[in-house]
């Protein structure tokens, strides 16, 4: 009787394992490509020139985590864009490149790039398919030439196979390299925070009283620049930071127009739990410090955004209670699914 019992338990466990294994396998082979979240606007990326495929996405993921893209084969895209930190370089005020060289700006998060018209804190790049050229060739980052990167990849037979699967040809070209990286980055979509589920009326989820009040404060005080649902309007603005030690003039470096001095790209407010430190140079370690800046430390620098000049003193008027409620709402923008999405992790 005892033997029969254990045999029964064994068969049940075997069946459950087989079902789970089957489900896992199904998850691995099911690839839906780029899917626009229901509460998001239409993307601006031109998918007709680079449709996301399973082979292209997987190639892009492999390239994203491959240190061969750097001169000394030590730094990958994933070194400065870490998934557990919403693809930022957590804990570093500015990015660290090969030979521990220091960059000049904080590594921005990689998320929801299909809705971006411009890239980098200081602009200058307006096509996602060109963006990776900057970190690959910049001295402080990967310090490599595209020619050398291509030669490295061409020497690896598995890469030839992967490029052929993705693009129908085993030619390893700059265009295919950039498009593969874009396909991976386009799939880095953060759209399953509590906020999204409330807006989409999913699962009877609702804001707490503090979160709801914070949402109203956000809409009154912050939404002009941090537009829902991406929580950025994609523009470049001067938010009154005192110039840093290197006097980084932001967008001006790309345009050489005086009106663009000290303007930086408006960052998304999604996943702030994971993306400290904050601002283009990582000068603020906490969100409390960020709010302190806006409520009492805004500098009247050239081209200060008019929205920050409307009140006296300059900035945004927030009481301590309003700050607490605003932070409660901002916490609803943290997306655990995005942070733990295994499909985006190094394989």
Structural descriptors:
Cytochrome Bc1 Complex, Chain D, domain 2, 37% helix, 347 residues, 1% strand, peroxidase activity, two-stranded antiparallel sheet, 13 helices, mainly alpha, 2 strands, signal
Tell me what you see in this structure.
The protein starts with a helix and ends in an 8-residue tail after the last helix. Helices cover 37% and strands 1% of the residues. It has helices spanning 2-29, 54-64, 77-80, 133-137, 146-154, 157-167, 174-186, 194-199, 209-221, 252-255, 287-296, 320-330, 336-339; strands at residues 236-237, 264-265. A two-stranded antiparallel sheet has the order 1-2. The protein has 347 residues and is mostly helical. It has three domains: 1-25; 47-190, Cytochrome Bc1 Complex, Chain D, domain 2, CATH 1.10.760; 194-337, Cytochrome c-like domain (Cytochrome Bc1 Complex, Chain D, domain 2), CATH 1.10.760.10. This is Cytochrome-c peroxidase.
What's the CATH first level of the largest domain? Mainly Alpha
Instruction: Determine the fraction of residues in helical runs and give it as a percent range.
Output: 25-40%
The largest pleated sheet is described as: 2 strands, antiparallel
List the uncertain runs. 1-28
Average of the residue pLDDT scores: 92
- CATH evolutionary superfamily of the largest domain: Cytochrome c-like domain
